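tool=predict chain=A
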Amino acid sequence: MELESVNDRKAEVQAFDDSKTGVKGVLDSGVTKIPPMFHVKSDPTPTSPADTNFSTSQFPIIDLVDISKNTTQRVEVVGQIRSASQKWGFFQVINHGIPVEVLDEMISGIRRFHEQDAEARKPFYSRDSTKKVRYFSNGKLFREMAGTWRDTLAFSVNPDPPNPQDMPAVCRDIVAEYAKQVKALGITIFELLSEALGLNPSYLKEMDCAEALHVMGQYYPQCPEPELTLGISKHTDCTFITILLQDQIGGLQILHDNHWVNVPPVQGALVVNIGDILQLMTNDKFTSVYHRVSLRNIGPRISVVTFFLNFTMSECTSKNYGPIKELLSEENPPVYRDNITMKEILTHYYAKGLDGNSYLLSLRL
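tool=predict ok
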């Protein structure tokens, strides 16, 4: 890229960031064409139309009803989770215990924050990733060659939650309630995943997999030129697992059988992604799925992403990670190094950025 073009982009990005109003501010300015800094290189991977190649019933939708009381039901669910984690890298759960009123209010709370007056949002705007509460747009914008069409309100909620007075009043109560309930669900999911691996139900929890939670309220404004950009580009999650709450607009796509597949929203369901670190721990038995968010000229799309991982280097768990010994054998030798610290994992993750490739490659033997 020519120096003049690079300098133009730097100036454009800096002006955007200095505004502290995100993509919402760009849209509110009345643009009919998106700025060049949001032009994403097209992906030649084909997209499978959901209404022809796939239907909602073909996606792994797992009913968690009565799993704590009905042994037969629990065994069946564990088998479904094992299959989905191997073949898809994700599944949706229903009857998960979080009331639909809590889910709806969480979506509404994130919308209230992003749609309030710009002057009310600006005090929370920051690129300091150590802050427990912050508002920003495109976390790696100054490194990557294209921005994506979304703004984020992020909370580091566990193990050391933010002070309530540091949280936006328009969503303070519901974020605290949702975080409590989604953590409890996460612990249940980790128990089921442990059983699906043939391990003690408490195995993954004892490995601190449920210790840290990072909640991001994502806001994807209506996009005037959705064919030129994305809500978020192709990536896998640097987590143990990710739990996603999405509204009914759609846009989530996963890479399955070398096609981008639309994931139809299911009212009341939550999406569970297998994260990179769990793929490492299971020695590739469970797969961290590539996914992205496509856009349409409607919106806003709102989602709430709960990452089971702390992204702050100074607060990493002291445990080391590698392929779980109980899963290894002569037929299944380790494919990753052992005793990898969380700081090393995050260092690789931050150094690479969202370039469409998994940083796990650097950790393989």
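The first helix runs from residue 3 to 19. The chain has nine helices and 15 strands.
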